[in-house]
Description:
The complex is a heterodimer of chains A (96) and B (139). Chain A has a 6-stranded antiparallel beta barrel with strand order 2-3-4-7-6-5. By secondary structure, chain A is mainly β. Chain A has one helix at residues 53-56, and strands at 4-9, 12-16, 19-32, 41-51, 62-67, 70-82, 86-91. In chain A, strand 6 (70-82) and strand 7 (86-91) form a beta hairpin. Chain A starts with a strand and ends in a 5-residue tail after the last strand. Chain B has 139 residues and is an alpha+beta fold. In chain B, 46% of the residues lie in helices and 14% in strands. Chain B has a 3-stranded antiparallel sheet with strand order 1-2-5. In chain B, a hairpin with a 5-residue loop joins strand 1 and strand 2 (20-24). In chain B, helix 1 (29-39) runs antiparallel to helix 2 (55-63) and helix 2 packs across helix 4. The A-B interface holds A 16-19, 54 and B 5, 7-10, 24, 65, 80.
Amino acid sequence: MFQQLRLRGKAGAVLWGYRTAASLGGWTITQQQAKKGEPKRWTLVGTVERLDPFQARQRPLLFTAHRDKGMWAWPIVELQEAGPIRIRAILGAPEQ
Amino acid sequence: MGSRFVRPETVTLSISNGDTLTVKKRLTSGEQRAAYARIYVTKANGDLGVNPLSTGMAQITAYLIDWNFTDDDGRPVPIRGLSSDELVTVLDNLSQESFQEILRAIEQHEAAMQAERVKEKNAQDGVSASSTTAPSQAA
Lengths: 96, 139
């Protein structure tokens, strides 16, 4: 059984509705093994290419990234850091 | 008075053949400005002029987010997330009738939203006007 799952991509976006709150270059999502009875915890860290500070403060936000057949989409539960260089967020369970 | 910012809300418009368009409910000032920018061209003398061939396309690309259109093989033709330039290349492949139908649907939607905002503004003005009027003292 794995203790940690890591996904990587070269492009992604944080969306507020249909608008792009942040465009990301490289990103990594890490899923830590949760304690028994606790929900899985996904952490996103990405490089910011363009950030709209107003939209990044709005809710709900969604992290999306292309994959082979469709899109990844994770709801952002908590945006811990949204600076000009780096973004860091806690994600909910992937939606699709 | 509500927020002056435009939330990214969408509206689904039904057109012929059971097809649907997902459009922005309302444009932000930036989206409206970008649409204007796609309409205007700089003339040889440096003045700005309107390119009439671009007006409909600019309005569609400003509003259109997604649709349920399929190609001849029944495969979806996704447009969500495309840039304006990419969307233009997809729209250029539509039949003239389909393009005009989309444009009409978006024009009607825009007119309906403007009418709704005028109605809301009038209602707000009525409320604020009465609330700023001091109650008369009983004699």
